[in-house]
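Re-run with default settings, no changes from the original entry. Doing this only to confirm the output is reproducible before filing.
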Amino acid sequence: MFWDKLKLFFDSTMFAPHGICLQWEPELLAVHIASDTIIALSYFSIPFALTYFVSKRRDVEFGWVFWAFAVFIMACGLTHVMSIYTLWVPAYGLEGVVKLVTAIASISTAILLWPLIPHLLKVPSPAELRQTKAMLEAEGLQRREAEARLNHAQKMEAIGQLTGGVAHDFNNLLMVISGNLEIAERTLHRWSDNSRDKLSKLITRARDGASRASTLTQRLLSFARKQPFNTKVIDVNALVAGMADFFKRALGENIALEIEGTSGLWHTETDPHQFEAALLNLVVNAKDAMPAGGNLVVKTGNIEIDASYAKTSPDAREGQYVLIAVSDNGTGMDPQIRERAFEPFFSTKETGHGTGLGLSQVYGFTRQSGGFAEIHSEPGMGTTVKLFLPRTHNALATAERDTNAGKNLRGDGQWILVVEDDEDVRNFVTETLTDYNYQVVEAANAEEAARAFAGREDDIELLLTDVVMPGKNGRALSEELRELNSELKVIFMTGYSRDLIVHDGRLDPGVELLQKPITQHDLASKIWNTLR
């Protein structure tokens, strides 16, 4: 029964096609066919556009509404197709089914759409979005300004801490120097048989104070990455092994030292003396962290830093590094202390028991070497400081020894042009060179030096000049004088070169440098080697 009715519903033999109603008028048929075709194609294109949009923007709110509209519009397009089809074929039953599907799709979409209107009204308008964007930009600007003010305040606090620490330590050192010199002066006025020994001790104390002041300034420069580096390709294992006996004496009998050198260790390029100073600072810090004794392990290894590890440290960069890890089982550090450990003059030791520059020198050394440093520590669990020095493929430097120890460093009467704007320093250098049998021409600046050099180009064999001076600097002076005498040898003296002979923290190739303050032996040794 049902199937009979269904067949009758779709039976088109009893009906006439729609074209008969139009009396098969060509113009009317063309208008209907063209209009329904264009409408159908347009309806069919819209669902494809909506489908493409929703598939690409899965984050769009109420995405299902777009799918509902796509079904509805597709059904509308089919009704127009059926309108063309029934012009020739009276399939009005099929056309009715298509219209029924279209009706269901349309009513479903309408029913689902109305409850969404309150939610759609809450969607921000373009004007509201622009206003919100402007507010966020203003908030971001305020936040950046606040961060800038905070950074400035932290910087000023660090500068204040640095200034106070420098003033404190230099006042103590200057007191040692000036106090002992005053006593020495009074001793000379009261000369007696015991005065010679007393005077010798006073001079030694003053010299020790000056040496401590020199160490302090060098550590400050190292932290600021302004200490001139005389870089060489080094074997870290060999340097660490060579310092083992010294470490043992420094640590004492109640601390066991263990050195674990990795075989096949890569080479690195850095200043070997600064490396030794950094390692010694770590050993001394470890000793202070183990007052009751303990174990100290110095371990080396090869390590490759990848992108994921580099993100965990602000100083880390991807690449291959030589790793030096110094570990103790001492008191350790809490997170607050660990965060500030590399700051200059920050120290947990009692007043007078350290400058607070040891770890800051280590930090500056690693950064100036192109690497970075890390501290891993927990209270009661000990501390491990890791130094990461970049790997080099250059050839290993030959070992250097002080071949001038105990040697007669007196000159043969060679002429030396000394250029130094500080009169006291110039007098010290001149007197020292005279004592070592050199002939000296003095100048307070580059202009005086140029006049003194004129006419004596062939006599003067060496230019000994300060780097930073009023007017023309020592580097420019040396280049000017070498145009007059290409064989002129040059030694620079500096306390802080301001990148005139140092770039990226490293000495320019071929530069001979004396780092102030200079001892008589260092001065005589450098000149003796340069003139040979």
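The radius of gyration is 43 Å. The chain has 18 helices and 14 strands.
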